[in-house]
Design a protein that fits this description.
ATP-binding protein, 3 domains, disordered C terminus, ATP binding, nucleotide-binding, HATPase_C_sf, single chain, 17% strand
């Protein structure tokens, strides 16, 4: 029979709990920080202590202790002893950031073989001390040692800033599974995560201090954790300058709450009551991705020729990809299942789901507070395929009749997938459509097309744009181009002016651009401007998204598998494009079908010239 103070309950083993699912050392440390904040601490200090042993020629100083100290309420003997039992947490209620109150032993033995806890309610010199030692457990220790009076070691007292009349210190030693070796490396990697996990609590006045230590002397780099906001709406924050003191994103979308970028849903919990869930969204400000925004230049030490994603703040954003799940002001997870990880534009949007602890079962919150499994599974949920022809409302009713556990979240997932992410992504494409990044992708084709046009001028009568140029002044042509770019294609005046100046100065008579035209069935549109043949790729047509955009994506960071998948997807789209034309011909009456066939043959000859083929095949295809 399991005793009152047994280290593990009958259905658990220490060996199993060593692999308790913590994603990293930083996630395990976050459990200790949770305990301090849950105990009403306003200061939590993280100490990472390197050994004073001199490293060998190629080795580095190695971390030998990690400790978390808080100035919270402290624990009485019973609570302290229970806190080191597996499966016997002291906080079963659903309030605050706690889940089951079992994080202390779970997180500790996932990283170390010994954990010591000192806790006091009447000064650190009157602390109570107990511990877990996996070596002793392996030799037969069955109960958590009874807490004994044991003053907090003077070394920790000397390092601490917030030592108060009550508090707790958790010390890890015999660090067998910590993933980083040095104190500063451990602090830096931990800072990114805990700054994100506790960003809201930090902005509300909670302090999480980071202290790298060698021996018992503080190293340079002692600092308070700054908020790391994946929505990039907080300031100040840990985002690199200039966005450390001002938001890098802005709220996005009208929302239904009267607040920009905030959508509210009511979700029924397992208790039959409805609870609010807030979906927040944001998008990068133009100055984060462009160097030409008046009054907002990039810092002098950042080259304006850099791709936005290669800037310090762009690299920072690349580490915050995903949908942030917030529970009781604490982040559970940054879920990357909703992200096209190979697409660099994904770093420039943010989405946050904010829900209360009462919805833990609905979202599938895990005991270690690192994920919400039911919500995460829905990242790959495609309701149309599963609905098998049913309408959205009919499909929801089917899920209701079947008692499907996903039902409470379907409306939120539908909003995110069908409305929110699509709008964010399209707005991001519009944001940079006239910049150097997108223009350079077209310039290679424009240059080769220009050479083909020159050859055509020697072999064919003047084209329409050539004739119009003879009847129009250069200034009139520029004005017509400007009106087309700004009014028709919604480029900014600055972008339009720059594009016109670039093409005119280079003597080009061909311009390729991207534009949104949801009302047009054509996948590209042609404008005959005096001296300028302008081709606009329709970004709202599937040919653009399935073929052109797939091939135009940056390859930085893409794996061989990603690239192979893109090529296969683009090849399929191109073949379907050709088959669609074939079917178009097939459905025509006899005379229009003959005209379509001749047009196809003529277009084939032109394509041969523009693609640089040496021998055009003039034979028809009968």
């Amino acid at each position: 029979m399991t005793s009152k103070y047994s280290i593990v309950t009958s259905d658990l083993t220490v060996k199993a709990l060593q692999d308790s699912g913590y994603k990293s050392t930083a996630h395990a440390i976050a459990e200790l920080i949770d305990n301090g904040l849950e105990a009403n601490a306003d200061l939590v200090e993280l100490f990472v202590v390197e050994s004073t042993d001199r490293p060998t020629h190629r080795a580095r100083y190695r971390v030998e202790k990690i400790a978390v100290l808080d100035n919270g309420d402290g624990m009485d003997p019973e609570t302290l002893r229970q806190s080191l039992r597996f499966g016997a947490g002291t906080r079963q209620e659903r309030k605050g950031i706690g889940r089951f109150g079992v994080g202390l032993p779970n997180s500790s033995i996932s990283q170390c073989d010994r954990v010591d806890v000192w806790s006091w309610t009447n000064g650190p010199d009157n602390a109570l001390h107990t511990y877990l030692d996996l070596g002793q457990i392996a030799q037969g220790l069955e109960e958590v040692p009874e807490p004994k009076l044991d003053a907090l070691p003077t070394e920790w007292q000397a390092l601490a800033e917030g030592l108060g009349s009550s508090g707790t210190l958790v010390q890890w030693s015999q660090l067998e599974r910590v993933q980083w070796r040095g104190a500063e490396t451990t602090v830096t990697n931990t800072e990114h995560l805990i700054g994100r996990v506790y960003r809201r609590l930090i902005t509300k006045g909670k302090r999480i201090k980071l202290v790298p230590v060698r021996g018992w002397a503080q190293l340079p780099g002692v600092r308070d954790t700054r908020p790391n906001d994946p929505l990039y709406l907080m300031a100040p924050s840990s985002t690199p300058t200039p966005f450390d003191t001002k938001p890098m994103f802005r709220a996005h979308g009208a929302g239904n709450t009267g607040q920009i970028g905030v959508e509210k849903f009511l979700v029924m919990g397992s208790d039959g009551n409805e609870y609010p869930v807030l979906v927040r969204s944001s998008i990068a400000v133009e100055a984060a991705r462009r160097t030409d925004i008046p009054g907002e230049p990039w810092p002098r030490n950042v080259s304006p020729s850099l791709k936005p994603g290669d800037t310090p703040w762009g690299k920072h954003a690349s580490k915050n990809l995903g949908i942030s799940l917030i529970r009781a002001d604490r982040e559970l997870d940054l879920d990357t299942g909703w992200v096209n990880t190979y697409e660099p534009e994904e770093r420039w949007w943010g989405v946050e789901i904010d829900f209360p602890p009462a919805l833990d079962e609905v979202f599938g919150v895990t005991n270690n507070k690192q994920s919400a499994t039911i919500f995460s599974e829905l990242a790959s949920f495609k309701w149309r395929e599963e609905a098998a022809g049913l309408s959205y409302e009919e499909f929801r009713e089917t899920l209701r009749e079947e008692g499907d556990r996903r039902l409470p979240l379907i409306e939120i997932v539908y909003h995110i997938r069908e409305k929110l992410l699509g709008k964010l992504r399209s707005d991001l494409k519009d944001q940079t459509q006239g910049t150097g990044t997108s223009r350079k992708r077209h310039e290679v084709a424009e240059v080769q097309a220009e050479e083909a046009v020159k050859r055509r001028r020697t072999e064919a009568p003047p084209s329409l744009t050539d004739k119009l140029a003879e009847e129009t002044t250069e200034e009139e042509s520029k004005q017509l181009q400007y009106e087309s770019l700004v009014k028709t294609h919604r480029y900014s005046p600055a972008d339009a002016q720059r594009i016109i100046e670039e093409t005119m100065s280079q003597g080009k008579h061909i311009r390729l651009l991207t534009s949104r035209n949801p009302d047009s069935p054509a996948f590209f549109n042609v404008e005959y401007i005096p001296g300028m043949l302008q081709v606009a790729l329709n970004m709202d047509h599937p040919v653009y998204s399935d073929l052109i955009a797939v091939l135009d994506q940056d390859i930085d960071g893409a794996s061989r598998e990603d690239l192979a998948e893109r090529l296969a997807s683009a090849a399929k789209a191109f073949k379907l494009l050709l088959i669609s034309w074939a079917r178009f011909e097939d459905e025509q009456p006899e005379k229009p079908r003959e005209r379509a066939k001749r047009m196809r043959q003529d277009w084939g000859r032109f394509a041969s010239e523009f693609l640089g083929a040496s021998d055009a095949d003039d034979e028809d295809d009968e």
